[in-house]
């Protein structure tokens, strides 16, 4: 009897389990009916043939991030993301091959202590980018003829048809079909592309900007820019391919130009007083020159150095200032006093309109002589290549506006000649105006398009699927740690904007990416 009771209790418990399971199954079935699982993701190409997509561009399209070209970054560029989305069922894309650098960290420069630096990571303890250990790269060991990404870091528009590029830029030389003879354009055309993206033009002014406006000759002239653009785009279209052309981004809103404030010299009262004592002779010399009508009061005011407790302006070299050397000579000072004025012939404290570069972060306060008394940007003017003055910013903005006008005009002319839309222009500044938090007035002053001005909502960051992403290289930012290039999330935003443009222009239904599923920057303790 006892065994029977145990048996019956076991059956009763089992019955409850079965009933419960049945109820769970019914509930699951009902939920599946009301909320069916998504089916296979599909798309259509519209009027495009995406069977052979080719990317032509510079460092952004190549996937250069964190100051280096490394394998993971190559696989997370907007071009690679587009290639992936084109392989969705129904869209018609094929495998997208990149000239793999075969390196975990890549190469960003030489390490003074020996060896090489690789990509940068964000140090959470130091709150700044720090380099990893890098390595030299070798020749591409894959099949050159099967490549899809022909983007080359450092390439200008005017380089696309230069056979010599393989010699001057090993990031092309390593995968060029015939180094010294072949060209990027020729190699790309040899693959018979059916669709292409074209991202060139930023390097035609970026080098000038990132060197602090050191050499105006670094900016490509408008005639050369237009000739190279017209020739290369016409050749690509003549091959039968359609394409999307990205214009030149407003680079001066990137963290490389915004992360370091103009008043990045924090001082306590005692240090400020000591520094002011050291500059007393310089300030007196300026006052004497005003009295002698050698300079104006306004010129004296912009050059005088007066430190105080708190945040102080960086002391900078400004090549646009009059060189006071000859006028210093007229003061009749003792040799030692005259020698003390020599470093300050064209110096002044920075103002809010100056843009210190990200590279200035490790230069400000550097002990120049090893004595602890000559500090870069504090007691000695920081070099010109660490600061972009307002006049130099105008050079950059003018070049960008000129280039983008040329890009728009060339695209319109080619489409008109073809009698249909074969080229679509992607205005990346629409996203950048939103991300940077520009207001309408500033966007207008920067010469942006009507669409970019409309996107300038005055709110810092961009909302992606309900999440605000920042215009910096923080863990929630869209830039990589070099302050210039996007991180994978930033590339995802660009890829989605291009896809939306393609869908709107060519009638395709290519699915968008999940940007938030992509990584941001790489951080370390």
From TrEMBL:
Keyword annotations from UniProtKB, A to Z: Signal
Matching PROSITE patterns: PROKAR_LIPOPROTEIN
Signal peptide limits: 1-20
SUPFAM superfamilies linked to this entry: SGNH hydrolase (SSF52266)
GO MF entries: hydrolase activity, acting on ester bonds
Protein name stated in the entry: G-D-S-L family lipolytic protein
């Amino acid at each position: 009897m006892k065994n029977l009771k145990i048996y019956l209790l076991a059956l009763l418990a089992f019955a409850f389990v079965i009933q419960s399971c049945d109820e769970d199954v019914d509930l699951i079935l009902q939920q599946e009916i009301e909320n069916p699982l998504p089916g296979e993701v599909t798309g259509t190409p519209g009027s495009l043939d995406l069977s052979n997509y080719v990317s032509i561009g510079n460092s952004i399209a190549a996937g250069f991030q964190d100051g280096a070209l490394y394998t993971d970054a190559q696989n997370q560029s907007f071009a690679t993301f587009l290639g992936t989305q084109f392989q969705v069922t129904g869209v018609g894309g094929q495998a997208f091959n990149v000239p793999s650098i075969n390196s975990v960290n890549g190469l960003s420069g030489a390490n003074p202590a020996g060896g090489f630096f690789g990509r940068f990571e964000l140090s959470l303890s130091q709150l700044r980018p720090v380099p990893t250990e890098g390595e030299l790269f070798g020749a591409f060991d894959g099949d050159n003829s099967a490549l899809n990404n022909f983007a080359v870091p450092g390439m200008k528009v005017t380089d696309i048809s230069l056979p010599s590029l393989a010699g001057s830029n090993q990031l092309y030389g390593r995968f060029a079909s015939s180094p010294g003879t072949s060209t990027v354009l020729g190699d790309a055309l040899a693959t018979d592309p059916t669709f292409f993206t074209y991202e060139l033009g930023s390097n035609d002014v970026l080098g000038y900007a990132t060197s602090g406006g050191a050499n105006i000759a670094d900016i490509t002239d408008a005639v050369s820019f237009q000739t190279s653009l017209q020739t290369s785009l016409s050749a690509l279209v003549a091959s039968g391919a359609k394409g999307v052309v990205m214009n030149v981004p407003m680079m001066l809103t990137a963290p490389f130009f915004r992360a370091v404030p103009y008043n990045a010299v924090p001082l306590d009262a005692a240090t400020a007083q000591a520094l002011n004592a050291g500059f007393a002779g310089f300030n007196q010399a300026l006052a004497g020159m005003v009295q002698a009508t050698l300079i104006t009061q306004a010129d004296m005011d912009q050059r005088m150095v007066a430190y105080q407790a708190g945040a102080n302006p960086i002391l900078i070299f400004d090549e646009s200032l009059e060189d006071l050397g000859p006028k210093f000579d007229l003061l009749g000072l003792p040799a030692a006093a005259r020698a003390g004025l020599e470093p300050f012939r064209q110096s002044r404290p920075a103002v809010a309109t100056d843009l210190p570069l990200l590279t200035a972060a490790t230069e400000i306060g550097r002990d120049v002589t090893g004595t602890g008394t000559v500090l870069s940007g504090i007691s000695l003017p920081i070099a010109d290549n660490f600061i972009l003055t307002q006049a130099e910013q105008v050079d950059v903005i003018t070049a960008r506006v000129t280039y983008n006008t040329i890009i728009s005009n060339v695209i319109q002319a080619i489409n008109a000649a073809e009698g249909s839309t074969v080229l679509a222009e992607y205005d990346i500044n629409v996203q950048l105006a939103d991300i940077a938090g520009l207001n309408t007035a500033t966007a207008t002053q920067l010469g942006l398009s009507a669409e970019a001005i409309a996107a300038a909502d005055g709110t810092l960051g961009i909302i992606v699927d309900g999440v605000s992403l920042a215009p910096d290289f923080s863990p929630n930012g869209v830039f990589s740690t070099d302050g210039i290039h996007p991180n994978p999330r930033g590339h995802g935003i660009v890829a989605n904007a291009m896809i939306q443009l393609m869908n709107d222009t060519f009638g395709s239904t290519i699915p968008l990416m999940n940007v938030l599923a992509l990584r941001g920057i790489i951080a370390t303790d």
